[in-house]
Amino acid sequence: VSQRTTTGCEKTTLKPMSEIVLSPESINRFRSRYRELFGSVASTDALYESVGAGRRFLGMEHWLPLFHDGLATLLDYLPTASISLDHDIEESVGARFEMVRDYYEARRAVTAAQAKGTDLDNGMIYNPIHPGALYIETDELLKLLSDRTVSAFRAFAATDLGLEDDAGGRLGHDFADVRARPNENVYEAFVAHVRAEQLAGRRVVLACTSAGSRARLKGVLKDHHFTSFVDADSWPDALKAPHGTVAAISVVLERGFVTKDIALITEQDLLGDRLIRSGRKRRKAEAFIAEASQLSENDLVVHIEHGIGRFETLETLTVGGAPHDCLRVIYYGNDKLFVPVENIEVLSRFGSETTGVQLDKLGGAAWQARKAKLKERIRDMAEQLINIAALRQLKEAPAFIPPEGLYDEFCARFPYAETDDQLRAISDCIDDLGKGKPMDRLICGDVGFGKTEVALRSAFTAAMTGMQVAVVVPTTLLARQHFKTFSERLVGFPLRIAQLSRLVAAKDAERVKAGLADGTVDIVVGTHALLAQSVSLKNLGLLIVDEEQHFGVAHKERLKQMRAEVHVLTLSATPIPRTLQMALTGVRDMSIIATPPVDRLAVRTFVLPFDGVVIREAILRERFRGGQTFYVVPRLADIDGVITRLKDL
User: Of 125, 291, 504, 643, which sits most exposed with the smallest number of CB within 10 A?
Assistant: First the structure.
């Protein structure tokens, strides 16, 4: 608390955490049991050789039972605890063991092929132990649960585990079948379902993921003539809502449920899978120092009046008979400056490379001269910016206001919870579109952080106002991807979307150009083919440029011509320095999306010997996840052989 050293610590030892301790006893236990299971050991068996020498081996936890006399389960630590099981217990246990047994059999097949000398491309020896030695199998699980109080939450009364206790609830109604039918409206189906539940004597509760989504859903349902909502701040409040109304509560639940008296419907039941993240407060900029604990000894700091110094320590000085905490800052010539902690705002961090930095002299003229020179440069730059800003302010552009109700319905189709930065970027764009001045905004964010959703909402706002929207992208692949995304999100709205790139047949391209010229095409997604002189748009209102850094000089000049009187939105993960400089200096507005989407995982890289079973497991895991796998082969001549090998695996 006082920032002072109280005791000294000469050294501390941090040991790795593991369920395996390589002691002489555990090593001997492993060696003898390994030989019992797998017979004579080959000299190339890396696991046996490493453990025998007392060295840790990557992945040796897969042979955990061989190091211990016995393995404990979680239930051994909870001798009297009652157990409640999820409604998916049978499917989860079954699927898990099916996967484990599949990996085990695949590994055994490779080991057998190695023993016969028929598997030449997998040199690593891997003797797998039986899954029953490492995992609790179904029979053992039933035995462990037999003397416990067990209740199961499930959709149906009967269960393969023979559990008769029932918690009384059932899974609620899912509107997926309604969403799958294009001619039916999910909100009208919701209203009909609510009335049916109320006739059955149940109280209906709508669980929304946030206060914002609750307000949006209420607005959309109001357009469908359903207004019997009561806001509830808590579950008890929801249960006190008058009969005949729907209590809308902000709580994160994936699926709804039905009991004798209550029917709870979640936002996910109604709109489909929605990935949730909790809101986070905005972090303040780290350049300014809020408190002394943010500084470490020898950090470089900049004093607003005296320049660059080195923070040394926190010192208590007695001034006027009272103690004062001060920061001691060292300047050139070992001069000392004491800054009271209550005036810490006059210090900021030195924000660049610290090696070779010259400290300023207290009372010297160098710092004041530097400040004066910088002020002059800022004044010149400001003059240019004022001229550019004045020209932009004099121009006029059509003002676009999102259509009430329809806009909320369009936003509700977004299957994820918007991140804080994403919401801010969307709000910035919608505000800019409604000002009547040409928008020129850069949306900067990493791949997959949600820039396209910002573009979609801006395009929807402009197109529903009756103006045309052009989305320009650098590659045909991206054009096709954006066209698919825009088409899926805008289905059911009175908007015509077209695509223009070299992948579009000549006859179709001519029809698209004619539609752009006569105004019948509302949104066009295309490559630099859109920038050709032969393409004219009747009433272009919004130009969206994705990955601007990939366009050449000629294309950028054409974009500048198109940019004269229309709104422009630029999306980029890696803006070129000039674009970024213009955004940072205020010539263009900028919104940064720095928050990763929910469940975004960091890239993980593994370097390991070729192992067919690991490759098989990785590909199958990605396939079951619904994803794609790229297998990169360095030589063309090897491709056919690799394809055959992957098929066998």
Answer: 291
Strands 440-445 and 589-593: parallel
Query: Is pLDDT at 143 greater than 90 in this prediction?
Result: no
Phi, psi of 442 (to 5 degrees): -105, 125
- Condensed to tens digits (0 to 9), the pLDDT of residues 96-119 reads 888 888 889 888 888 887 777 766
Query: For the residues of 570-596, what is the DSSP string, one character each?
Result: EEESS--HHHHHHHHTTSSEEEEE-SP
At 143, list the tokens.
């035995």
Sheet holding 307-319, edge to edge: 335-340, 322-331, 307-319, 300-303, 347-349
- The conformation of residue 23, written as its DSSP 8-state character, comes to -
DSSP 123-179: -----PPPHHHHS--HHHHHHHHTTS-EEE--SSS--TT----B-S-EE---THHHH
Instruction: Write down the pLDDT at residue 223.
Output: 78
Say what angle helices 451-464 and 476-489 make with each other, to 10 degrees.
60
Main-chain phi, psi angles of 609, to 5 degrees: -60, 155
- Is residue 417 within 8 Å of residue 279, measured between CB atoms? no
Give the pLDDT band of residue 496 (cuts 50, 70, 90): very high
pLDDT value of residue 158: 43
Residue 15 is encoded by which pair of tokens?
A: 């040991």
Query: If you search the block for the tokens 């800052």, which residue do you land on?
Result: 329
Q: Taking a C-beta distance cutoff of 8 angstroms, is the pair 134, 65 a contact? A: yes
Structure tokens at 455: 């573009």
Sign of CA dihedral 103, 105, 108, 109: negative
In 3-state terms the chain splits into helix, strand, coil percentages (rounded to 5) of 40, 15, 40
Question: Whose CA is closest to 482, among 505, 495, 509, 501?
Answer: 501
Query: From the centroid of its chain, how far is CA 465?
Result: 32
CA 483, CA 525: separation in Å to the nearest integer?
6
List of residues 6+ apart from 648 with CB closer than 8 A? none
Say if residues 602 and 446 touch (Cβ distance below 8 Å): no
Distances (CA, A) of 19 to 16, 50, 56, 62, 72: 10, 17, 12, 11, 12
Whole-angstrom Cα distance, residue 134 to residue 111?
19
Bridge partners, residue 314, by sequence = 327
